[in-house]
Specification:
Layout: H1 4-7, E1 21-27, H2 31-42, E2 47-51, E3 66-67, H3 75-82, H4 84-107, E4 119-122, H5 126-141, E5 147-149, H6 154-157, E6 167-170, E7 174-175, H7 178-191, E8 195-198, E9 202-208, E10 211-216, E11 221-229, H8 243-247, E12 249-257, H9 263-266, E13 273-276, E14 281-286, E15 289-293, H10 314-327, E16 338-346, E17 353-356, E18 363-367, H11 373-390
Parallel strand pairs: 1-2, 1-11, 2-8, 4-13, 11-18
Antiparallel strand pairs: 3-7, 4-6, 5-6, 9-10, 10-11, 12-15, 12-16, 13-14, 14-15, 17-18
Bound molecules: flavin-adenine dinucleotide.
């Protein structure tokens, strides 16, 4: 089961063969591994990315392509969970991620359908509208760009939408075609000197800092001074400390995409990063297609603990279609021939892991973005590269992501 993005993007063409040794070995060629490799290579470090399948073949190629602010949550809820100071740090980290990412896409001439019309958080209920107003009050107090859209103005903002109770527009959000973006960044990393090796499935890591030996399933080996885990939840067994297995859990998201829409229908959908129901349902247009995911909460078990992205849940598909038919009557006659799933990585506190793995000198991790890695990882990769090269990173949010917060007592 492949995504619309994977089906329509040319393969990564700058792949390298496996060198005998490297300074930094990065496991995983999703957005986390590729962003880290790009920043390390740009700093002149000898870096090799080992990707089991192809670049962006897992979550990074199976998401909704939304560059979000605020961990997808409404801002007052982030305040509630983390406190005002940390909430502000997290928001600013994401805003800075988007700024740097946009600059990199421009610098490297990466054409990935970036649309910067902002995001529209839609209120599914009158209660959610009240919460959006609370979020807006905090954003106003902190001078963060936003606009509340009352229900009587909604038709102007989203002509095709029905049954919402207002919205919050966040001009700093954007949409991209994620596979084109990650493969474009991988090409830039290769041009900067990174070895990006597809079909390199790491089976074992032996040795110690400065002299790790990575064994691939096909018998090849690589010597490395430093190892970085960017494998999401997909290779937790490669961390002998057990921290990744203990602190990171998988969950599955599901998306459907339409056939090309008739022009009159397409005209009802601006190119925002859209969501409703506290971001549980998320949608956007891509070219002349409509793409929507979510409804994980509507089935027993909420798709927690699932590692299989070749299967799907038929009830989720049905529930996504029911959502569409309720909120977008113009889509009632439209077919949705594309269906796919992707595996995300979560942590108990909702924040990613970025930094050294405790008790394992020379071993680092950048993973577990709790469903928002596309929005997080470009700056996070730069922060990790700075930690490796300079031993420190000035981004004030980085201590919040330290893996040692999950170290065994
Ligand atoms: C349905 C869905 C919708 C989403 N929507 C959004 C969104 O709109 N906005 C947003 O910000 N985020 C979104 N996300 C989340 C986002 O896609 C992820 O957080 C992000 O892609 C994670 O990137 P990653 O590099 O950590 O992991 P991945 O992209 O999963 O990459 C990990 C890589 O490691 C490789 N690997 C695993 N084991 C090994 C091994 N032993 N050896 C070598 N390689 C190995 C895998 O093949 C894989 O390519 C969504 C995710 C899903 C599934």
């Amino acid at each position: 089961m492949s995504s619309l993005w994977l089906d329509t993007t040319p393969p990564f063409a700058a792949g390298a063969s496996l060198p005998a040794s490297t300074e930094v070995a990065i496991l995983g060629g999703g957005i986390a591994g590729i962003a880290t490799a790009l920043h390390l290579a740009a700093a002149g470090i000898d870096v090799t990315v080992l990707e089991r399948q192809s670049i962006a073949s897992r979550a990074s190629g199976r998401n909704d392509g939304q560059l979000l602010l605020g961990l997808g949550e409404h801002y007052h809820r982030i305040h509630g969970q983390f406190g005002p100071e940390r909430a502000a740090l997290l928001w600013s980290f994401l805003a800075r991620n988007h700024e740097l990412l946009r600059a990199a896409l421009q610098q490297h001439g990466i054409d990935c359908g970036l649309r910067q019309d902002g995001g529209l958080r839609l209120a599914e209920t009158p209660h959610e509208w009240t919460e959006l107003q609370q979020a807006a009050a905090l954003l106003s107090a902190e001078g963060r760009a936003h606009r509340l859209v009352p229900v009587d103005e909604l038709e102007r903002w989203l002509p095709a939408g029905r049954g919402y109770h207002g919205a919050l527009h966040l001009p700093g959000e954007a949409i991209v075609q994620p596979v084109a973006m990650v493969r474009g960044l991988a090409t830039a990393a290769a041009a900067a000197g990174a070895h990006v090796v597809e079909g390199a499935d790491v089976a074992r890591i032996d040795g110690d800092a400065g002299d790790f030996k990575l064994a691939l399933h096909d018998g090849r080996t690589l010597q490395a001074a430093i190892v970085v885990h960017c494998t999401s939840t997909l290779a937790r067994g490669l961390d002998p400390s057990g921290l990744l297995a203990r602190a990171v859990f998988p969950f599955r998201g599901q998306i459907i995409a339409s056939e090309p829409l008739p022009a009159a229908v397409r005209a009802g959908f601006p190119s925002y990063a859209m969501s409703s129901n506290f971001c549980y349902e998320y949608f956007r247009v891509h070219g002349d297609r409509f793409v929507i995911g979510g409804k994980r909460w509507s089935v027993k078990g909420e798709e927690l603990g699932i590692l299989d992205d070749q299967g799907h849940h038929p009830d989720i598909t049905r529930n996504l279609l029911a959502y569409l038919h309720e909120h977008f009557p113009s889509l009632r006659a439209v077919q949705f021939p594309h269906l796919w799933t992707g595996i995300m990585a979560g942590t108990p506190d909702g924040l990613p892991l970025l930094g050294a793995l405790p008790g394992r000198p020379g071993t680092y991790a950048l993973l577990a973005f709790n469903g928002y890695g596309l929005s997080f990882a470009f700056l996070a990769g730069r922060c990790l590269a700075e930690l490796l090269v300079d031993g420190r990173c000035a981004e004030p949010a980085v201590p919040l992501f330290a893996p040692r917060r999950f170290a065994a007592e």
